[in-house]
Amino acid sequence: MTLLHRLFLALALLIAAPALAVPAMWQVGEGASMVTIYGTVHALPPKSEGGQDWLTPAAAKAFGEADDLVVEVVMPQDPQAMAATVMRLAMLPAPSPILDRVPADVRPQLANLVQRSGYPPAAFDRMKSWFAAITLVQMEMARAGLDPSAGVDVSLVARARAAGRKLVPLETPEGQLGLFDALPEADQRLLLASAVSDAGEAGKQMQALVKAWSDGDVERILKEFDDSSLSPAIRERLFVKRNAAWADWVQASLKQPGRHFMAVGAAHMAGADSLIAMLDARGIKARRVE
């Protein structure tokens, strides 16, 4: 798997849910102090286009019994607030030709993608390299029929709000974008080149991912996303540090009464540096319940 596929999963903008989806779920603690950990994806096909129910009876029960919903980030309900954050973090102070930021053999394909995007070329010249890569990923998502508004997290947040339940964000929107903004330019350009090189193939690769996620097959997710080719900076920022921070949150929460439903990206559940492994290293046993 190439770096772009790990970017998809890191962004959690990956996979469509087939029928009979049973995503992986764990529980830690017991009685009055418990955290349910549910692996998610953030973009799915709309129900009108073949999307299926993904909240199993066991997951629905755990969600219904929780005092709050814990998610990676809660997006502002005012779209203008998020747009202002994006403009501040994602744009260059002065234009830099986007084609000059990828290897020569990738430039013709990038030029074609820019033309197909509907954006003027000058818009990409103003984007930072990491944001240009994310923009191309979003284009691939749309072509694959995936809709972030139909994703697991958005749906759970809507359910929680309708029920008057507390929302607990682990990160801020600015903090999530900052993970990419803080990457060295060389790593940002690597993401951009990978996004270009893999354009057109992402749909098929998403379907391979979908099967692993819908089956709750953590080992297969790990196999598909062996991150040995990730640069140390990308891996540390997008996975290791975040998993450690989330494990700290779980550990602190178990010291107080409360039942929490924690819904975070499925990629964070697999591997030696996963959230589950980090909890185990702290002596907190996560019981696989689905």
Summarize the structure in words.
The chain is an alpha/beta fold and 290 residues long. It has 13 helices and six strands. The chain is elongated and about 60 Å long. The protein has one domain (3-142, 176-253, 266-282).
Contiguous helical run count: 13
Query: How do the helices and strands follow one another from N- to C-terminus?
Result: HEEHEHHHHHEHHHHHEHE
What is the 3D shape? Answer: elongated
Total domain units: 1
How is the secondary structure organized here?
Layout: H1 3-11, E1 25-30, E2 33-40, H2 57-65, E3 68-71, H3 79-90, H4 107-117, H5 121-126, H6 129-143, H7 152-162, E4 166-169, H8 173-181, H9 185-198, H10 202-214, H11 218-224, H12 232-253, E5 258-265, H13 275-281, E6 287-288
Parallel strand pairs: 2-5, 3-4, 3-5
Antiparallel strand pairs: 1-2, 1-6
Helix pairs in contact: 3-8, 6-9, 12-13
Features of the shown structure:
six-stranded mixed beta sheet; disordered N terminus; 50% helix; 290 residues; alpha/beta
Quick synopsis:
By secondary structure, this protein is of the alpha/beta class. The chain has 13 helices and 6 strands.
